[in-house]
Amino acid sequence: MAPAPIDPRIVDVAEPQKDTLALPAASRERLVKAEIDLSNGYPYRPSRPLYSDDVYNIRNYDRPHVDPGTRADPEKKALLSAAKEVIHLTRHIGTEIVGLQLKDLTDQQKDELGLLIAERSVVFFRDQDLSPQQQKALGEYFGEVEVHPQVPQVPGLPGVSVLWPALQATERAASYRRPGGASRWHTDLVHERQPAGVTHLHNDAVPTIGGDTLWASGYAAYEKLSPEFRKIIDGRTAIYRSAHPYLDRKDPEAGPKYIEREHPIVRVHPATGWKALWVNRAMTDRIVGLDKAESDVILGYLFDVYEKNIDIQVRFKWTPRTSALWDNRITIHNASWDYEGSEPRHGTRVTALAEKPFFDPNAPTRRQALGLLGPDEIQDPSSVTVSGDVDAISELEAVLNEKSIFHRHLKLDVAYHSNHMKNVVEAYFKAIKTIKPATTAIAIFFSSVTGGIAAPADLGPAYWVQNLTSTVLFTNALGKMCADGESRPNMLIELGPHSALKGPIRDTLKGIGPPTAKIAYARTVVRNSEPSHSLLNAAGAADGKRDDILGTMALFSNNLEPTWRNIVRLDDVPWLREQRIQGMSVYPMAGYLAMAIEAAERRAQQHEAIFSRFEFRELKVGAALVLTDDVDTEAVITLRPYTEGTRGNSDIWDEFRICSWNTKRAWTEHCTGHVRVRINGKQQTLVSNVAETGLKHMSIQTKKVMTAATYRIDTQNMYRVLSGVGAGYGPCFQGLENYFSNPHHSRADLYLRDTKKVMYKEGRMELEALYMPTMIRSLIISANLSTIPGDFVKAWCVGGPSLSTPQPTKFDLWATSQDSTEVLINMEGLILTPMKDPNADSGGDVAELCYKIEWQPLHDDKAIAEEERQEPIDYINVTLWSPIVNGIHTKDLLIMQYGTPDGSAKWLSEAISTETTNWKPSIYPLGEIYSCSKHVVVLQTGITSLRDLTVDVFDKAKRTLLNASHLLWVYHLDSPDAQMIVGLTRSLRSEGFGRIATLGLEAKDIEKPTPAILAAMDALWPVDGERSCKELDFRACGSDLVVPRVTNDTVANAFVHKETHEKTISVQPFYQSGRRFKLEIASPGSLDTLYFADDNVGMLGDDEIEIEVKATGLNFKDIVVAMCQLAQPWLGIECSGVISSVGKNVSSFTVGQRVVALPEGAFSTYALSRAASAAPIPENI
């Protein structure tokens, strides 16, 4: 049979390839038995359409569709009674029917099969003797069979597609990293006008190992969403695309494009009437009406709900001659390629197209329809469930409404544990009367039927009938269990679909009194959580061993981004209760550091790295992690290589991020920063003199603090004062002894406390300004710190807050060992921020989130200069000067040229020799002389840039940059390429490679660069004993230098604040050129939500006039409208003003004329009114 398009109207086609792949033996046997003609090759490939419009128009019209499931007996007796066995594979999805042949089903059984598929999503039949012709006939019963325009078919049977991964691999090679087949989550044919309904896949050849297929339930995925989130997506539509792309006839050179259709995100199945989530990662492209970023976030979350909740999935192991029938309207599926093509797999597929997708807002979810919304029989001291006759319940509801008592009407078909159940007592008893209870038991059974202990022999049929009809006595049974001191349990573990009993349990234990305070509670399954995780958490709680601050490695962790998860409970780490800020237990910053240290150590051990210290930088603390006894908190820490700008990931720095989640709030980020492990001195040989200088500086600073801090502090009184003002620290946090201080310096002995000895203490008073740590610029912690309780270190601090005007304050802290000057902890740039800012109420509402770089004069900012004087010296000029010449120290200065010589090197050398006496300059090409421990000035001339590097020049530049002890690279600002050196030097500095500075010259300074270069040299390498400048990036402004400063971007902050706050108020003039306003109310009924918004004026009608409003009358009707007591879309019914425009039919008024009018909205800059509703204002008024 010659290839042809599936639709004769399609003429622009591509001829298919000729396949010669050998059929699996089992597949050939089935096809031959069915008398399929294989003489012209297998499979048959139709001619592939070239253009998308041809494919789009295939079946592009509405067709009637009646789902067979709508005709079925809800109990499905004809189908299920004929089966030998019915096996439900999971609670939510998947059923296997044993003992039936699909080819022999009656029409009634087919209808019931359709309903079963609609309810269970996918149904399996093994050992089927089924020909492709019989498979197609069954598909036609469920709807119009889809004939694909390019997928291979069984010869002579259009609509019976061939699924043969080995054949597909001839077109698209498959590998372990890029699996073949349908190994991705998807739904079939979503681009059709009426997409796929029931698909029937019959596999006649399957691998012996692997090759499973997974399905996920759209019903259950939708039910996983919160009710509020469902409101966001209900009724919305998305764009769905085809699996194959085609050319655009109007623009074929643009390349292949996918066919797109718009369908609802949530659809309703016509047979069940239940809502289902209908998206898939492969073919749902975007949500209509949303920006791409918004759409991506929502769709990404929906995809994850579908794919990551394994409790709503079924994984099926194929055997030869097995059929699977699933409903594409309520599922997604994924074919596992774990067999990697090592064995043949072959099957035939028939897909019946269904109705056009629709959404019904009144449709129920599956759990609503089946009465699975949760137990309604729970009783506890603070709430009660009442069941009974409808009239009685309605009467009770009216009384509760009258008394404003909170209640909820449970929409259930059956009132369990009530007299209503007596209607089924007889049948129920008859069904279980032969069941004999056990005579002995190893557990004690506390009955919620009797409220006490029930013996094993009591649990006969009569007991379970009583359980069906009597009141639940849960409180009585739990009270009985926990009241006896000798048999009282240590922990209560709830086995159930979610933590429904947590509230009743806590209320009951609270009612019993203090003796039950130590009884722990754990739940085995948590709604919307991975069951394996919650089970492990319950097991960990029962085991009682939770001493790992990181917790366990997350299932989604990987070597590149290791992630740990931990459940933080105050009962497990009771010493955390001892830090209480304003009466709340707040996770300390030291806890974040401990987590990061532990994670970095684990990572270092994984790479078998030897280290002696931990280094941190750019530590930031955001939202506080507040811990409470009634809520468990999940803490997550993630490490990943730090991205150094645009040049890739750092090899030594890791970025860590600590977040948390609990049931009272969403995910919150608490702490971020960079961490690495180091060997003292080993990784910084090129700048070892800096390390030595740093030690000397710390020794000087320590002596300075020792001299300045002489006032002895009564530490116990200090802790009492702190507790009184809202910062309570218990014994585990009271580590300071021998404490001395002055306004800007302090020192003490810092003891390591034993956290096993926990005492509880709290107090609360109002505090004008309480300072909390929010940022640390850099931190180094030695791995040799003692962990023995009772040991101590010497702690030193420089910095002091302003008590009169609280504001973020910088401190430097370090700790030395007891008997030496070895620095064990060095913390620079600790920022303490006041929790309460008294200026916040006077215009400080706009958060400082945005910053910008401004180039400011180097020596003209007094605040910065003061800051530099108080900070530790990062770098001190440690130049080893050459011997004295004529009584003056001299030092070699290498002037190197990169690029074509232009004479600037000679001018600079002459100027240095003439104007200074401390430098001995010499000129060389870049890299032509060894520059180790030398001072180097590199002149980048002309248009030369790093873009022009050759291998030889790169090696020379690398030697110079890495070997020179001090280097200044001079470049031209008028060449963007020339500025590439700035990024390179910043990257080198971030990796610890010495003092590399840059100087940019404007065009006007290029001819006379010497003053700027000398100024930079004087700032970087002073010869008069002054400390060197901390800045390393300069630009010239004549002979002056400017440096980059990070400043607050007030304009951007105001914009962000306005865009992220719905009710942002900004003072601005009411009359603005080209801008119109109107009065609106955000919440009708709340007059305090009135505000002015931009007025988008529509077209002026032919009989209308436009008035520039000068005065507006306030009427009672306006109040009624604003209070939402009268439906009217505008505010204001009368105004006066000047006509600014008239319609073409208006002849009684002219532009500029004063009028009074009754417009449609008068509280606005401009108002529209019918001309008949306006009157001129006399000239004498």
Automatic annotation (TrEMBL):
One of its GO terms (molecular function) is 2-oxoglutarate-dependent dioxygenase activity. Its cofactor is Fe(2+). Residues 710-875 are annotated as: C-terminal hotdog fold. PANTHER family: ALPHA-KETOGLUTARATE-DEPENDENT SULFONATE DIOXYGENASE, ALPHA-KETOGLUTARATE-DEPENDENT TAURINE DIOXYGENASE (AFU_ORTHOLOGUE AFUA_3G01010). Belongs to the TfdA dioxygenase family. Residues 547-682 are annotated as: N-terminal hotdog fold. Keywords: Dioxygenase, Iron, Metal-binding, Oxidoreductase. GO terms for biological process: secondary metabolite biosynthetic process. Residues 547-875 form the PKS/mFAS DH domain. This is Taurine catabolism dioxygenase TauD/TfdA. Gene3D superfamilies: Clavaminate synthase-like, Malonyl-Coenzyme A Acyl Carrier Protein, domain 2, Medium-chain alcohol dehydrogenases, catalytic domain, Polyketide synthase dehydratase. GO terms for cellular component: cytoplasm.
